[in-house]
Amino acid sequence: MFPETPINSRLRPLRGLVQALALITGIFAVATVVVALCGGFGLLDSPVAVRVSSSLVDGLATAPGALATGVAPGGDVDLVFTDPTWTQRLLGATGPVVSLLLLTVGLIILNRVAGAALREGAFTEQVSRGLRTLGVFTVLGALAHSVLELVTTLALSAQALASGLSASWSVPLLPLTCGLGVLAVAEIVRHGLSMREDLEGTV
Can you tell me where the transmembrane regions are (predicted)? Predict the structure, then answer.
């Protein structure tokens, strides 16, 4: 049983929310795999799509009168494989599944950090180490997932386009910023722990 303190009374429900989110994302990851497998066996209609530049699609048109004068379609469009192979299904499911798994693992690490804070307090070595682990995992996981998405998009576009490959890569700024922020908090906790130890040593 965790001691009842002001921070624990606020942290306990937040930890419960983190645990619930971890369970939900894990279930969604498994469901995504199951849907892909069922589609491969013909049990479900689960199309596979790849996003390419609209400039590569011949004959792209809009409804008459839908666009104002001087405006043309731009950006990206989704191409759908009407009868995807197992390889295409695997490539299509890889990005979403890995994304959900990374989120699940991150939430599990955060849950462990919250548990350590409830047991021992916020300014402890275990909390600092857990936050540092979460920050590094978030940064590296975001970069790895971004590269994985690029590779799977290139592979699928090569099978969807007769003219070659198509993919765009963007820096995952939001998760990178969150990861760096967690690393900063971990350093603050470590510094606070060091100051407390110094004060205790002088008493």
Answer: 20-44, 90-110, 131-157, 169-189
